[in-house]
UniProtKB/TrEMBL annotation:
Species for this entry: Lignipirellula cremea
Entry-linked InterPro entries: DUF2971 (IPR021352)
Superkingdom field: Bacteria
Protein name as it appears in the record: DUF2971 domain-containing protein
Pfam families, sorted: DUF2971
Amino acid sequence: MDFPDVKQLYMYRPPNEFTTKILETMKLWASKPGAFNDPFDCDLDVAGRITEADVLHAATTEHGHRSQWPADIRRFIDSILDENGQFTQAERDRLDREIELLIDDNRNSGVICLSEVNDSILMWSHYACNHTGICIEFERTPNNALGDIEIASPVNYSSVYPHIDLGKMLVHRDGQTLDLMLRYKADCWSYEKEWRVFRDLGNAPSPLVSRITKVIFGLRTPTPYRQVIQSWCDARGIRTVQAAKVNWTFKLDIPV
């Protein structure tokens, strides 16, 4: 399992009916990237169009020199290039249409956001409504979705805005080029230590990514809401703990 030291991932939640519904239904909400609070997040830029050189490079990377290309590959390349070595109009239209469909698929995908940390004062303030909400702990093992790096992986924080390299997409035809673009954020967010899980459909409920092992109450979780969450956790056999201030320092104490 990649990142074996990361054995739990966390979701900060405000004290509302949507949070309660997670424990009622044991499902999560997978948001579309466009719903994120950062307008730069997942806003993909395409660096130019696929060129004829990109196609030839992809074929060479996979099959070697042209003399070694399988007959079907040679026929395909010859069919999409004219006598001047340029794309036929039909091929140019097809490529542009396929790229647009790929980008649309990513924009309409579902994203579940988690964090490596459960004691971030900022995230308790921002995402758990000024420490009045909860933080849900999910188990990460080699045998569940969170332990599969192709399903759940950490966000890359960067000061450089990412672009889609369409030529690279031809060489790596597994969708990873686009997926990586959805895992880039400005480095000012690095304190979140975010992980993302992708689903095919956004703005839709999704099965739990793994077993819930603990629910943490915030410093200010109201008693009535705490009682509602506690009843659901008791019914599900989920342990609950209370966050506390650490004396004389800006830290939270979260029971293990």
